[in-house]
Amino acid sequence: MDLSQAIECASAFVFPGFLADDASLAAERSKNEEALAVLRDAWSSAEPGHEPFGYDLIMSLADRNRDVCDRYGIERLRDASSPNLARKLSDADLVRACATLQHRPVEQVAALAGQGAADLNVAYVNAPVSGMVMGIDIETTDRDPARGYIINVGLEFMTIESGAKPHDAHAAYFGLPQMYAEKGVPLADIHKISWSDVEGKQPFRENKAIQKAILAAVCAYPYMAHNAAFEDSWFMLHMDGYAEARRDGRILPIDTRDICRRIDPEVRTLPRDSRPASLENWARRRGTLAAGESERHLGLDDVDLMLATVLAEFSERNMLE
User: How far apart are CA 221 and CA 274, in angstroms?
Assistant: First the structure.
């Protein structure tokens, strides 16, 4: 699919009744997701101010694709590959995160980190970390942000220093299409969110006030998330203005999972299949989660655990000012 075909796909008006059988719904989803990849690549590679279309075209196509996935059966796509979910942040993002936490030039950290940020672990322990961050975690109904919905957000702020405690916490649930009252909330086996939690709540995509508030917060402070590429990918297709601010350098995600992998020496000695960099296992090693406890997989609870654990790791490595 070329760019003109992708724009045509995104701009087309589709009558829902024409997509009634599995074959047509599957074909429409495949076409939409191919178009999304072409459009996103074209938009991100264009010079700011010279994009061939507005980012709202991408957002509207993603919204339309979610409806197609709902009618096809999102549960049938649970194991399907997720073309709109990034596996990791870029090396430039990771280097910039370290530089921001250490309040020193990106070039200085990049020189220490080396090619491909292979030695970013060296850079991290080379200087103390400090400053205000926002922790955030989202719960969703699918891995792919062009297929599912954000149904829970938890966030709070913390100054990185010895003995710090998070403050100004906020948590909220968001609604789903009515069909899920009978079908049940997707991925409930992971996040334990039921229909009663989201019933009557405004969907995240429709809640412009919460989008605006979160956008203002992530533009004001670096935000931490465990596997921040997940939140970043979802905000790119769910939060108005995020993509533009991200491209302009006004947003900096910090991945605490990458921090764990870089500076916790135990990660390199533990079996990979034990998932040593998962938040739950990392927190147990740092003593922020008791042996008999489990990660909640709920927004604010996971933010609390993440911030406590990354602070404990920084303290363990003598990285605090």
Answer: 33
